[in-house]
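Support case: PBG complex. Customer-provided input:
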Amino acid sequence: MRETEVRPSDLIWSMVVHEGEGTVPVASMPGVERLSVKEAAKAAVRARDLGIPAIAIFPHIDPSRKDATGSIAADPDGVIPRAVKAMKDAAPEVGIMCDVALDPFTDHGHDGVVEGGKILNDATIERLIEQGLMQAAAGADILAPSDMMDGRIGRLRGALEGDGWHDTLIMSYAAKYASAFYGPYRDAIGSAKLSAGQGDKKTYQMDPSNTEEAIREVALDIAEGADMVMVKPGLPYLDILRRLVDEFRMPTYAFQVSGEYAMIKAAGANGWIDEERAILESLAAFKRAGAAGIITYFAPWAAQKLGG
Ligand code: PBG
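Agent response - structure generated as follows:
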């Protein structure tokens, strides 16, 4: 009588890479480690062996190398392109997805270029295109713009076509909410906490109270050329996920974000919930709500459990 079943092939492994050697645990996300390029390549092989079809990578950048405009975001020798190449060499069948956004590289922590306390939409898009083209050239299979500037999907698609990257896919963070659930991610990638006077991300991310706006945002991104769309965060927004699937019939993904991971781990560690059951139940809920796939930090654990 079971209507849906989560499989390893439903999972996209959310992974943090860093510029140094070895692995560094992330305090607020027990079980998650920042991986060196070498370790990321080994993880790609592990993903293939576990049946996980894709990995989404996020960079931890040394604070000394960040600046106001995130000038190293498009560096072709940066940790992201190096990790993409190493992972594609090690396990070519595993898809690699890269975040297109400036926040890991800016010293203020915003996703774009800031002037006079305001995010500059169009100037940011120019930088994102450079970053996206660099990621495509490094071998990324999927570009995932998470910056939320208006018009970036169309511009990026055009730039990719212009440079011959016809097969590079775009998964748009189409319905992305200004959420408290991203908290531990700041710790994971070492991104700056927006300080007083620097505003918040509410001018480019959505109000958690809105549904109709999500429909409009997703319609725009699809019209601009997104191949797949995403809802983020995950579990608190399953109503949005279901509505988008019903409305557009597009491959629609859910991101089980850092705070969702941390809550389950913390409650589990305290013996307040049964951690393993809670993880599997949360993944099943995404699938039931219509997700084409789930981006999650639980991917390797869950794939092992489900595939074994
Ligand atoms: C930002 C970005 C964020 C996440 C992925 N890309 C944070 C934000 O928008 O503030 C969050 C991921 C997570 O919490 O696991 N470009």
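Residues 160 and 166 are 7 Å apart (CA to CA).

Case will auto-close in a few days if no follow-up is received.
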